[in-house]
Amino acid sequence: MKRIHLLLYKYRVLMGVIPVAIGLLYFVLDENKRFSKPMLGTGTVVMFIGIILRIWTAMYNWENINSVEPIATNGIITNGPYRYCRNPMYFSAIILTLGFSLIFGSWQVVLIAVLPTIAVHLHQIYVEEKYLMNICNEFYDTYKKRVPRLLPYRGKVLDIPVQGKANWKRGLQRDAGPIFGGIVFAFLIAILMPFLRYDYLFLGVVVVVTVIINFIIVGKIKSDVGKVKMIPSTAPPYVLLQPLRYILFSTKKYIDNLNIDKEIENPVILDLGCGPGYYSLPLAENINGTVIAMDIREKMLQITQNRAEKKNLNNIRYLKGDSSRIDLSDNSVDLICINLVLGEIVKMDESINEMVRILKSMGRISIMESIFDDHYLNVQEVKALFEKKGFSFELVEKKKTYYILEAHK
């Protein structure tokens, strides 16, 4: 059952897009279906209500997507739309889906599009709430009791601190693509309605519509949006060790670029957020030093240890813990490897302070980020995190799908 939950969470976007595309195809292939002005008008209005709600929400949660710090100590936004429901972003996605579907005037399209979207978001809400309860404890529990989960109404939040500030510019920047796509789509249908021939025109644009749905309807722009900065990766080990990953991210090339074994005798390397040991094991195999595999999940450390024992590797230490409290001595680490993990860190400032503390005077941090990662941070965002701590930077490698940046102490 747990594996099913993980798969649902990992592939929720795909599960939302496919049913909507099927619904559109059903509409397109039915020669008797035609747009009607009442349904077109109703659907457009509902869709724009969803867009407005989405903009309002983005104004408050833009900081939680890719900023340096969580928006507040507890990481929970209670201002703006979050005073009326705990998940306004997901509510706006459902409203958008409903409006988009109503435009077609087909109850079959509405059912095929809306029900899977609701199901996907309910599961996402379940995963996020479980995590929020673990890190925010009583504060989130109080907020949860006073503000509804999805259907908005005035919550009893007068005794809860107002957290989060609006930023129109960043909010609009974040959602510019889906907002523009929704507006263009609605107006094109309104203008071209008298001339539309479904059997020819829509079969040609259904792929474009599906892409728009991916960004507008499902409610996923760049990363998971909750009331905390990021939710730790829930990807199961077999996903993190899949063969495709070895093709996309060569461990041999990565280690060669590090070149640490030639610079330092018996280096100490911390693999922060090691997962099932995708990088920890190759590092231990190819470097004459000590690798510390650290992860917040005991299961991942156990998998890493089991894999290391099969390879007879005895130069790996295992450390369970949070990056904001690293159980290592000051000035004890030569290199910290953070691969596809940085965006998942919740307490970013505390974590970077810990990295500074444990790094030796000439130590460095190797950071890999990929556009395939839900928690992707671009080069400028990563630099913003570390430069205030006095780090200098070297862009080791930059490809279309990923980059490797080194931060030198």
TrEMBL record:
The record's section on SUPFAM superfamilies has: S-adenosyl-L-methionine-dependent methyltransferases
Q: Which GO terms describe its molecular function?
A: methyltransferase activity
Span of domain Methyltransferase = 268-406
Pfam family for this entry, one: Methyltransf_31
Q: Name one GO cellular component term.
A: endomembrane system
Compartments, record wording: Endomembrane system
The portions of this protein that span the membrane are 6-28, 40-59, 89-115, 176-195, 201-221
Its BP terms in the Gene Ontology are: methylation
Stated membrane topology is: Multi-pass membrane protein
Name the chain's protein: Protein-S-isoprenylcysteine O-methyltransferase Ste14
